[in-house]
């Protein structure tokens, strides 16, 4: 049998920005005018099969140029590597990227460099799934538990989760995997929607979109809060009137509050029966989250989209600081680290409801939730995946949500690939959209 000599020949980057601030899509108390953006990359090979690895990390505008530069800094670790070796063991690249001591100094394992690592690692997983001819959720769900454990970096975790414990969790879930896969393909994975709740929307738009969400089959919506209490009281009242008493309504402060403010504000909104309060304070404040959780019960505390790595998630779980874990597909070091986070959540019995409010995050996060259902937690009880109805048209295999459920992707890959036309239009500053805009402003 001939040796596979194909190599990674290029890592190409793109600064892709969408002008969502103009319609206030994505607006919240901390981020009033975000431009949803993707620091995007493509791995190209000389395999001759036409397959590429696509990955990105999510930003909200001007930070994209910094994020793209960080991805560029990793090129030397990737170009020239064996395609077959890389796809057989993405963890090898993950370890090399995290282990670059001079770049690690900028973290370690946090911030812009760690997000860049996640983008590159996710692109490798996209390529691996395409070469395997399977969507990523299926590639992961059908993998041998021992191999999955080999993909996880357990450094700094073994006081809470050992490799043997992780293997036990995965082995325990083997029974029923086929039946759960059948259920997933037939019904999909439960979703909730944030689309009605952006802070910049009028009460009329909020009410209209909330009613539409119910008609579309959603059983949970989410509202942004935290800028002005009187506005929040009015908006929560309008939303609860629109959806009735039986539909869950989560609220999200996007880190706006100090601990005392978080407690007082959440309790002031308790009359509207919020299901959870999301990001009530700094994502780094583990003890603060624990204090909020004690003081606002029975309202649940959720966080994770800005939690920088598996070690902080470990401590949130150890401290009993959260009721709902919200991992992000692009904030941490890619699929490998998210496997660690999913295993930690399973060990502590905390449901995972991923963050997906951003360009392409719905496309990626669905694979992680579906893997978790089939091959780890084995349940969708109290688990919902965020959905926002923005920018899916730019992806080759966009997310499909029907009757309040994500339909399981069937196309090989990680659903990360954008249309070339979208990149050509929205790459900054030279894309057709932005060059026209900048010319008109000059």
UniProtKB/TrEMBL annotation:
<dbReference type="InterPro" id="IPR046945">
    <property type="entry name" value="RHMD-like"/>
</dbReference>
<protein>
    <recommendedName>
        <fullName>L-fuconate dehydratase</fullName>
        <ecNumber>4.2.1.68</ecNumber>
    </recommendedName>
</protein>
<dbReference type="InterPro" id="IPR013341">
    <property type="entry name" value="Mandelate_racemase_N_dom"/>
</dbReference>
<keyword id="KW-0460">Magnesium</keyword>
<dbReference type="InterPro" id="IPR029065">
    <property type="entry name" value="Enolase_C-like"/>
</dbReference>
<dbReference type="Pfam" id="PF02746">
    <property type="entry name" value="MR_MLE_N"/>
</dbReference>
<dbReference type="InterPro" id="IPR013342">
    <property type="entry name" value="Mandelate_racemase_C"/>
</dbReference>
<keyword id="KW-0479">Metal-binding</keyword>
<keyword id="KW-0456">Lyase</keyword>
<dbReference type="InterPro" id="IPR029017">
    <property type="entry name" value="Enolase-like_N"/>
</dbReference>
<dbReference type="InterPro" id="IPR036849">
    <property type="entry name" value="Enolase-like_C_sf"/>
</dbReference>
<dbReference type="InterPro" id="IPR034610">
    <property type="entry name" value="L-fuconate_dehydratase"/>
</dbReference>
<feature type="domain" description="Mandelate racemase/muconate lactonizing enzyme C-terminal">
    <location>
        <begin position="203"/>
        <end position="299"/>
    </location>
</feature>
<dbReference type="Pfam" id="PF13378">
    <property type="entry name" value="MR_MLE_C"/>
</dbReference>
């Amino acid at each position: 049998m001939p040796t596979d000599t194909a190599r990674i020949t290029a890592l190409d980057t793109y600064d892709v920005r969408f002008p969502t601030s103009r319609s206030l899509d994505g607006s919240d108390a901390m981020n009033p005018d975000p431009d949803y953006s993707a620091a995007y990359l493509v791995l190209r090979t000389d395999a001759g099969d036409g397959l590429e690895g696509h990955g990105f990390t999510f930003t909200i505008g001007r930070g994209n140029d910094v994020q793209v530069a960080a991805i560029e800094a990793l090129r030397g670790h990737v170009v020239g590597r064996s395609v077959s070796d890389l796809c057989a063991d993405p963890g090898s690249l993950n370890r090399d990227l995290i282990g670059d001591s001079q770049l690690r100094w900028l973290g370690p394992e946090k911030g812009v460099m760690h997000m860049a690592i996640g983008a590159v690692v996710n692109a490798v997983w996209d390529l691996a799934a395409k070469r395997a001819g399977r969507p990523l959720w299926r590639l992961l769900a059908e993998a041998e538990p021992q191999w999955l454990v080999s993909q996880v970096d357990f450094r700094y975790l073994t006081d809470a989760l050992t490799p043997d414990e992780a293997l036990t969790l995965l082995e325990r879930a083997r029974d029923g995997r086929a039946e759960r896969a059948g259920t997933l393909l037939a019904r999909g994975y439960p979703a909730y929607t944030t689309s009605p709740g952006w802070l910049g929307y009028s009460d009329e738009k909020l009410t209209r979109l909330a009613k539409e969400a119910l008609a579309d089959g959603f059983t949970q919506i989410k509202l942004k809060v935290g800028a002005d209490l009187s506005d929040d009281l009015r908006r929560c009242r309008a939303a609860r009137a629109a959806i009735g008493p039986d539909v869950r309504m989560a609220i999200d402060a996007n880190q706006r509050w100090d601990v005392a403010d978080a407690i007082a504000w959440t309790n002031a909104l308790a009359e509207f029966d919020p299901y959870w309060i999301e990001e009530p304070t700094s994502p780094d404040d583990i003890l603060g989250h624990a204090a909020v959780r004690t003081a606002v019960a029975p309202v649940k505390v959720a966080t994770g989209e800005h939690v920088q790595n598996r070690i902080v998630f470990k401590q949130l779980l150890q401290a009993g600081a959260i009721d709902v874990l919200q991992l992000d597909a692009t904030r941490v070091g890619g699929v490998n680290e998210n496997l660690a986070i999913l295993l930690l959540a399973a060990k502590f019995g905390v449901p995972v409801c991923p963050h997906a409010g951003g360009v392409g995050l719905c496309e990626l996060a669905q694979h992680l939730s579906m893997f978790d259902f089939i091959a780890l937690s084995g349940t969708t009880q109290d688990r919902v995946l965020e959905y926002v109805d923005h920018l899916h048209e730019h992806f080759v295999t966009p997310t499909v949500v029907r009757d309040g459920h994500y339909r399981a992707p069937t196309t090989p890959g990680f659903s990360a690939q954008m249309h070339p036309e979208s990149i050509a239009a929205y790459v900054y500053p030279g894309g057709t959209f932005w060059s026209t805009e900048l010319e008109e402003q000059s």
